[in-house]
Amino acid sequence: MATPRQTLTIGNVLRADIRGFVVASRIPEPEVPTFGTFVRAPIQQGRTDLIGLVYNISLQDDPFLKNLAINLDQADEEIIRDQRENRVIPVEISVAAVGYRDEKTYRYGLPPQPPMVLYRITVCDADEVRAITASPNFMRPLLENRDVPAADLIPAAIRRAAELLPEAAREAFYLQAGRYLAHYLGRDPIQLEQILKQFSNPVTFQA
Amino acid sequence: MLHIECLQTEIEAWSAFAQHKQEQFTEKVEVAHGYLQSPPPPVEIRARLAPLLGRDWTGALPATEAPLDASFSAPARPPDDVTLIAVDGSQIFPDRHAAILYYLIQVGAIVFRYNGQTPIPHSRPALYYQDSDLFDAQGYVVSAEKVNLRRLTQEMAYLCELATDERRAAPTTPLFALTDGPLLWAYPERGQDIERAFQAYLEALGALQQTGVIPVGYVDRPGGRAFLELLWALHLAPEELVERIGENPFQQLRDYRLMERRLPPGARTAWFTRPTTINRRHSEAGQEIWFCYLNVGEAGHPVIARVEAPAWAIPNESAMLTLHTALLHQARVLNGYPYVLARAHEEALVTTLDKKALEDVLQRQLMEKGLVPQMSEKARQKAYLGKR
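^ inputs. structure came back:
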């Protein structure tokens, strides 16, 4: 199911290590990627891409807005609209690595190198997300990364990927993911239950 | 590395000096305020000070018949149906030690309509890399002054462009084009480049006039003392006027300190003009610049700005009242600085991170073409040390 490539560059790498990186971004609110978004960053002089998942979005301090907020009232409609609709929000977006792409395929796990500072980060398009999530192995680095909220991040990523599949293929996709998690988290039934509960009622995390 | 502890004596002396200077200022402000009691009418002032004209005296003259000590207030509410267009600029200066020799100018603007709609931000970056951009006639890398000059003319040209579009969209709405800084040309007459830029600047002011847009210069914490020069000149007897005009006891004082003392919150002074050579040249082009002081602060916290506008706009009392109201509203939301100018600055701003990102892209482009850009060894060492 080919879809047009609709990618969005969201910012520059601010700091990075092999398990993930943080992006500094100043883009309008509607374009800020959401929790569980797949993104890619060039590594190894752009010969390959690291694939990661957004697991945290934090608003940076904005003294301009702070100063303004004290004095604004509802009559200042134009200024409120300017702040909401036009002004770029300084945000830091944290990304956990799930794998990387070599010339032929996706490899899951930690990449050979982190992205370099100031490399530009792009949101993956639908084809890329389908290809990355075709194997449940993309969840392994998330389950092994103690810095990320895997119990929330994995369901969010699975749901995002499932939405890109034809309706008829979704059940099998959820089942495949569930089996993988049951195998991987056999010794951690509490986390397994937390994740699978969100699978059993995917509607609950549509909000 | 700075050893601050070695400066301890100087720091203590500095704070004592600052305290002493503040006390002196307070005394001088009171003296100047005393000079302002019962001033003669403007017509008499102009006649008395006529001998100073043509001598490049830097004082102010009353531009209207309003008394010298008059102040004018405006409604404390957002104005209706008016549009402000603010513009500002930012630049990356050329650096001969950097890996890539270029400079960049970005002009930012915002169109702010008081009609409940979302303001419209604009920005326009331009990269300069041709030899004719980068080097002067002697073969040296162009100076920061030349880049600033180019930025100024670009700001004005951009303002004209946006104002023309806005006028087309709203033929009857009062329109003000705001710049952060004086409207009166600030560069001394020196060389053809400056002269060309000045002519372009005057033409832009003329174009705004033709479009029915009033250009406005907004100077926050103004550094001038034209009003104090006027008070000193009025204090002198006619026979000593020319001889003693240079003995102004308020030399270190600035007008804004006196205005903090006497202008109530929200009020402005009367309009004044400066009979300087550069303003005469403005005048010859039909663009003489007048100014007033405006207190955009609150009780106990005065914030004085100098507002400059062309003489042709001032007789439109309704427009001037609208401008006064709009500036008060704009400054109220940002504790004494117009919101539109702050936003235009934000749109224009090129941050250090932006600069790094741009240079990264430029370097990659060169490397793809087999060229290896290298900064000078001096710049490299400074970059290492600067990171500490």
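Chain A has one domain: 9-205. Residues 167-184 of chain A form the longest helix (18 residues).
thumbs up if we can close this ticket
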